[in-house]
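Encode chain A's predicted structure.
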Amino acid sequence: MVNVAERIKKALFAKSWTVKKLCGAIEVSEAGYKHMVENNSWKLHNLSKIAEVLDMPLTALVSEEEPEIVSRPSGESEAYLQDHLKRLEENFARLSAQLETKDRQIDGLQRTADSLQRYVDTLLGSTPANEKADKKAKSFLKPATETGRVVEMYPAEKSESKKSA
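Encoded structure for chain A:
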């Protein structure tokens, strides 16, 4: 059996309405509404009014199938939602542009790193005598997160400053 009162209750919740507001909209006293709920004695014209003010078809209240009750925003909240959607779209476009810029920067840095690696490889060559220097140069190009240590950029300057002191 269809529980009309429960469907109305769900629709009221979806619209953030109270029973008092519904009663005012359909011009029925709260006592009269309570009587209809308790006795399950719904008049067609009352159900039609309820469906109309809740922006739902009458069949959603009385059909055997469970309806999907979706709240429709009022004019004020609809304007708010439209404004919010517009701001979200603007933010998305701005963030997408920033992401594209960062992607181009990463590509450029990767090309620079690849070029530096090729340069180091050509300077060191691949002879067995240069294996130790080759290993040191390659570890220098690894990020600190991979090696687990921070590589000093100018170690020779520190040793010279210690000698002069």
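The radius of gyration is 36 Å.
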